[in-house]
Amino acid sequence: MEADALVMTGTGETGVPAAGTKLGYELIADLALTADSAFIWSFDFADDTLTWMPGLDGVVGLAGAPEATVHARLAELIAPLTAGTRKAPPWRDFELEQSFETDDGESRWIRLRARTVVEGDGEGTAGLLGVATDVTDRHENRQALADLTDRYRLLVELSPDAICVHEGEVITYVNHAALAFLGARTPAEVVGKPINDFLTADSLPAVLTRLASLTRTGDSTGPAETTIKRLDGSLFTVEAVGLLTTWEGRPAFQVVMRDVTAKKAAADALRYQAALVCHVSDAIIATTGEGVVTSWNPAAELVYGWTSAQAVGKLATELVGAPLDPETVLREGGVSQATHRRNDGSTLLIRVSAAEMNGGYVLLCADETAWRRAEQHYSTVVAALDEGVIVMGPSGHIESGNPAAFRILGSPREDLIGLPCVALELYDEAGRRIPPDELPSVVTRRTGHTQNGLVVRIRRPDGRDVWLSLTSRVLSPDNPAGASVVTSFTDITERRAIGARLAHEATHDPLTDLANRTLVLNRLGEALSGHARGPATTVLFIDLDKFKVINDSLGHSVGDKVLRIAGERLRRGVGKTDLVGRLGGDEFVVVTTGITEAQQARALAEHLRDALTEPMTVIGRQLHIDASIGIVMAEAGDRRAPEDLLRDADVAMYQAKTLGRARFEFFDVELREQMQRRLRLEQDLRDALQNGQLWTAYQPVVDLETGEMVAVEALLRWTHPVHGAISPVEFIPLAEESDLINVIGKHVLRTTTRELAKRRAQHGLDLNLKVNLSARQLDDPQLVPMVRDALATTGLPPGALCLEVTESALMRDQAAAAEVLAALRNLGVLLAIDDFGTGYSSLAQLQRLTLDTLKIDRSFITGIAESRDAEAIVTSIIAMAHAVDLIVVAEGVEDEDQLAILRALGCDQAQGFHLGRPVTAEQLFGPLPVPGKES
Ligand code: C2E
Ligand code: CA
Ligand code: CA
């Protein structure tokens, strides 16, 4: 048996029991009214008597049962009331619902309402007066309601729409969908939170206003778009409907939210498509199945010239001026080319695409007139180009080409089209055939990169070689992979030939066709820059010996031939990769790499000298040449510039010359230092003149017959501030390397003529002055005027001046020398040949020069007392000189024996340390008289 709680439903203070009965009739009436099925019962606390009205047996499920059975059931059912109300004050109402099972096993509900009543005038509760009602039906309804509630709850719970309930702006319930909406996993994350946690600040006021408009339970707002905020802060648009409801007896809002993202997206897509149709540049025309226009976009207006208003409702075929058969277009794959007409009659080249839609068609008409025309123009231009253009398809076959391409490649169109590009034979500048996978078009297709300005050679079918400057690039750079490649090229054969000739001329010596200085330096530069990896570089600087003699004595054309032969011999004497150059004059250079040992360089130098010294026959004359060779080896990591290497090789060559020619010398740093000292000395020498470091010594020349001093030789001296006395043997050659010798020569002439003029006057002497002339001074056009001027200003008679010229200076350029000497003679000056015997001049040659004096070289005098040969030579020189009326002077006489022999041999004059050393003028002549105190 089940019992609801016993409840007191009223105070009943006002209720008074009816007279004459144990129970208050008022209540009975009241109770009786409540239901047809209500039956009265009463219970007396005094004796626990339980009485009931007939019919109640039915209410307790025991219709027609014996009284005792009914009593027992009723007593049991009301037991909670009888037990609980004995002490209760009178006139209180109590209510109890009980369930029980009938004999048939049917579950029934009975409601028992009771009031505590008073007996007569007594005080305190005497018993209960009650009504029993069968409420089984109502209970069944309530069960149904509970079921319904459960079902509804489930419905809400599982609704795809998010549903939440909030009460006083605090969420009290959320369904499953709402959890997902709000980004929560469990209701606990949401329930109990204020709604403004889930609404944006913007949407909250509107939501509250909408909900506030609801007044009665069941009222709902219309759907409204609301932006909600998820737990993670992200925003979300929903369509929400608010509903005023009660939640656990209190007013609350139930909010149903629907995800409108998809709906919004669909709407957006529609808007987008509409905009697209509006703004595309292609005409979009919708028609009915019969071809009547239903839509005509702005592009269609532009392309065809008809406004949408004019077009809609008309036949599309009439508007585009051509048959439009969407069915055929569709059959042919949806796209076709057509010629349409604008409303002004002009022709349009249109690409038509068609699609079926809603029983009609949509036609997309792209106006390609402009670019198809451009295409035509382009092909006309390409056809007219001088530049060859060919297009290689994705498969590497030639797909098209312009006339220039076929002309340059020497093949007709039909031979080339379809040919795989690898069939073309291309060679690079080194003459190597370009392998198929390195062909420019193949590389371009593989890498997508443009190959620009490549120079290649191609062999034409007619056997002619053509040089091409070629560029290949992908046809459509947007889609490089596997795309077509366009190769354009110009025929540069002729330009190249000219260029090659010019380049050759710029880098080669025209006489020998050997490399010139520029090319030598370039090659040296390359060899040196490749040093880290490459082998050592060796430079041989080769200077022909005695070439000047050949050139001077046999003429330039013979000289040129000799140079050509020498160049050819050098070229044959070196390896294929070695470079032979001519730097000018008789200077050659060999650059070779790969020599690592000095021994190899030595062998090469010997080999080259051997080749050069082979006798050569030029215009019927056999000539011998030799060479001085300077060698410099640059090992890996050498820091010298090409110019430095050449200079060092030159230094070594100079050393070879100095050491006697016809040999080779290796460069070493000491050599360079010597050279540098020479260079410094030359610089010092320029200053020496200004600084008074140059002065002249005088050495007496004695007449052997009288023993008298008949002349003095002026010998130049340099007192260097650091190095002390420097011999003219060292510094005169330095001065000869530049025009400094002329400056110095002039100075010597001026000072010595002045000195001697004074001394002659001082002592009343007829003393000659001998002054040395260097070979280069003979070339100086200022020499003759300068001598004339010196004589004129000092008053020295021309016949008192004897100019000494060495044998080699006279032999250098005999014709020119003869001219200068003649001019000097015309001044009345005497001339002497100095150092006679050291050269190869014959007296016959000397005779032509009309000299006055011959000076026998010191080397013969030194040996004259010991060697009979020397004596014999001196004897014959004296004899021959006398035969042509030359005065003979012996130089370098150092003792009495030599002097005696010379006197015996009839030598005219002599000079030497034995007769007098070179000394200052003061030492030789005594101090000059003080002006004005002359005696
Ligand atoms: P040179 O013309 O043959 O001069 C004679 C040289 O022999 C001088 O040497 C002189 O000092 C030296 N000498 C004289 N007597 C003897 C002797 O008994 N024994 C030895 N061993 N030597 C003797 P120096 O002064 O050193 O001059 C060398 C050369 O320099 C000269 O040879 C001359 O060719 C050149 N030179 C000197 N002064 C001048 C000049 O003013 N102009 C030019 N162009 N050359 C000059
Ligand atoms: Ca001399
Ligand atoms: Ca001499």
Provide tags for this entry.
935 residues; 8-stranded mixed beta barrel; alpha+beta; 39 strands; disordered N terminus; 27% strand; single chain; 7-stranded antiparallel beta sheet; binds calcium ion; binds ligand C2E
Structural topology:
Blueprint (H helix, E strand, L loop, with lengths): L1 E2 L3 E4 L14 H10 L3 E7 L4 E4 L3 H4 L7 H19 L7 E9 L5 E11 L9 E8 L1 H23 L3 E6 L2 E5 L1 H7 L20 H10 L11 E6 L5 E13 L2 E10 L1 H19 L3 E5 L5 E4 L1 H7 L3 H4 L4 H5 L5 H6 L3 E7 L5 E11 L2 E8 L1 H16 L3 E5 L5 E4 L1 H7 L3 H4 L9 E2 L12 H8 L3 E9 L5 E10 L10 E7 L1 H15 L9 H13 L7 E9 L1 H8 L1 H18 L5 E6 L2 E7 L4 H16 L2 E3 L2 E3 L2 E9 L7 H17 L5 E3 L2 H22 L3 E10 L5 E12 L3 E3 L1 H9 L3 H24 L4 E6 L1 H5 L3 H12 L6 E6 H6 L1 H14 L2 E7 L6 H6 L4 E4 L1 H6 L4 H16 L3 E4 L5 H9 L4 E2 L10 H5 L10
Parallel strand pairs: 29-30, 32-34, 34-35, 35-36, 36-37, 37-38, 38-39
Antiparallel strand pairs: 1-5, 2-5, 3-4, 3-7, 5-6, 6-7, 8-9, 8-12, 10-11, 11-12, 13-14, 13-17, 15-16, 16-17, 18-19, 18-23, 20-21, 21-22, 22-23, 24-26, 24-29, 25-26, 27-28, 31-32, 31-39, 32-33
Helix pairs in contact: 17-21, 18-19, 19-20, 23-24, 24-26
The protein binds ligand C2E and calcium ion (2 copies).
Ligand C2E binds next to strand 32, helix 23, strand 34 and strand 36.
